[in-house]
Design goal:
globular; about 325 residues; alpha/beta; about 30% helix; about 20% strand; 15 strands; L-arginine/glycine Amidinotransferase, Chain A; single chain; three-stranded mixed beta sheet
Length: about 325
């Protein structure tokens, strides 16, 4: 008999080992979160990132979270493979969507064999694979649940329009997922586009973490606030410094008993104020993981490392 998971927080996640992890010059042009200092120490960076990944994996499993981890192919030097949520999303109706990515160096990350393994080896039901990667040839990009933060319960997709998130494709995916679209523009303190929506906001079942200051247009900001409040979400407003510490890059998941946990990095946790922590703990158990190397050189954090699996299981 098929079992249906919580419709906002997944009970299983997919992760990919950072076998080839390194600073990526190509992605840095649109990702201000990446830091270049020390980037030439590739072997040290690679070793540290793999140790961080293993410790993260262990910690998540200690909290009874089902993590399905894959090892990438040695044939491709995919430095950002640790961030699979940008190329794939898994949905409760059996749809799997493959996304077009801005950086050519990232496109080899897409792996049909990972999807096949979820079906054949782990019992998840995949009914349809929708491949949107051909839009790369048209210069149109939408980087999965990095570009889109989805409120699955209320069928609302929040998205910051940026070089990695094109409105045309966003609207297409919203049609595929039967979601309404709440789009806006968010920028950092220097006025540069924030590359992914999921570094400035997280939508959980009962709360949302968001850097409202980054949405400078008052109409857009009010639109986001009204949408979140109308769907019963308590808003935890973070500032620019907290966003830079990846406090927006959280993800709610369920353990195997159905309890809510909010996953974040140690740097994100340390940036939070006591009142913010208290608010989150009203709804979810906080689980923090220490991934400074991945954050520094990859410009993404723990939410980017997790692709939520919403597929049903037979």
């Amino acid at each position: 008999m098929a079992t249906v998971m919580d419709n906002q927080a997944p009970q299983a996640i997919m992760m990919v080992r950072p076998l080839h992890f390194a600073y990526n010059e190509e992605t840095a042009s649109s990702n201000a979160f990446q830091q270049a200092q020390g980037k030439e120490n590739v072997e040290e960076i690679r070793k540290a990132s793999n140790l961080e990944f293993e410790a993260c994996l262990k910690r998540l499993r200690q909290h009874d979270i089902e993590v399905i981890d894959f090892t990438p192919n040695d044939a491709f030097e995919t430095t950002d493979e640790v961030f699979p949520n940008n190329w794939v999303s898994f949905h409760e109706d059996g749809k799997v969507i493959l996304y077009p990515m801005l950086a050519p160096s990232r496109r080899a990350e897409r792996r049909i064999d990972f999807i096949t393994a979820l079906d054949k080896n782990y019992g998840f039901v995949v009914s349809d694979i929708i491949d949107l990667s051909h839009y790369e040839s048209q210069g149109l990009f939408l980087e999965g649940t990095g570009s889109m933060v989805i409120d699955y319960q209320h069928k609302i997709c929040y998205a910051n329009i940026s070089p990695r998130t094109h409105l045309q494709l966003l609207e297409k995916v919203c049609q595929i997922l039967d979601c309404s679209c709440c789009h806006f523009r968010a920028v950092d303190e220097n006025g540069q586009d924030i590359y992914h929506t999921n570094v400035l906001m997280c939508v959980a079942s009962k709360y949302a973490v968001v850097c409202l200051n980054a949405i400078r247009d008052e109409t857009d900001r009010n639109k986001v606030v009204q949408s979140l409040e109308s769907t019963g979400h308590e808003i935890v407003d973070i500032d620019y410094a907290q966003m830079s510490a990846f406090a927006g890059n959280m993800m709610e998941v369920r353990d195997q008993k159905g309890a809510s946990l909010i996953i974040m990095s140690q740097s994100a946790y340390q940036s939070l104020r006591e009142k913010q922590i208290t608010t989150l703990e009203q709804y979810s158990q906080i689980v923090s993981v220490d991934i400074p190397t991945i954050e520094k050189y990859g410009g993404g954090s723990v939410r980017c490392m997790m692709a939520g699996i919403f597929l049903i299981r037979e």
